[in-house]
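Retro notes, item 3 of 5
We never archived the inputs for the fe (ii) ion complex last cycle. Fixing that now. Sequence and ligand:
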Amino acid sequence: MPQTTFPLHDRTVGEIAARLPGASGVFRRFGIDFCCHGEVPLAEAANRRQLDLGALEAVLGDLDPLAIPDAPRETGALIDHIQTRYHQAHRRQIPELIALSRKVEAVHAGHPEVPGGLADLLQRIWGELEVHMKKEELILFPAMRRQAADRIAVPIAEMRHDHDDHGAFLAELARLTQDHTVPEGACRTWQALYAGTAQLRADLMEHIHLENNVLFPRFEKGA
Ligand SMILES: [Fe+2]
Ligand SMILES: [Fe+2]
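Structure as it came back at the time:
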């Protein structure tokens, strides 16, 4: 996507995030859902968030379209990257966050901003995500590596549906944590907890984006 193709307003946010290195970080900063709702044109996404479209296009226009993307392009390498950078990271992150959250909820039970129910929410996210990642690792990704495109339309649709559920979990996570913002004078555990939930949000959005907007469409076009 060379810079001469700007303006971007009628391109979808998923396409922009997939083709312009750094765009997903910009979208995250502006609160634009580029992973579960990547099909939305940029102009409409800006309108939904009451953002100035011209200013948003200017920020995107400052990105270098020739920068090296974080994720490899080749399908097998991309799947490897998703598994090592995201699946394994979630498996490290989420159990730690559950433990931190239980601690904060117990120690600060009387605090008006205590994130009551956060540990239970994270436990639900963890349960769903683990089953989802296993399905990708054992069924979908091996079929993709074999280029068995005729057999994977249904599993892909199921994974997209799961991703929508994960997006709803992230919205609930943001609500419970005041958008990952610690209260004044919060202890280090609370600070570590919200730094971790913000990282989980960033990682899960990028993870879903790579599957929904980059990997899956390669197998859906001819299906
Ligand atoms: Fe995944
Ligand atoms: Fe997934």
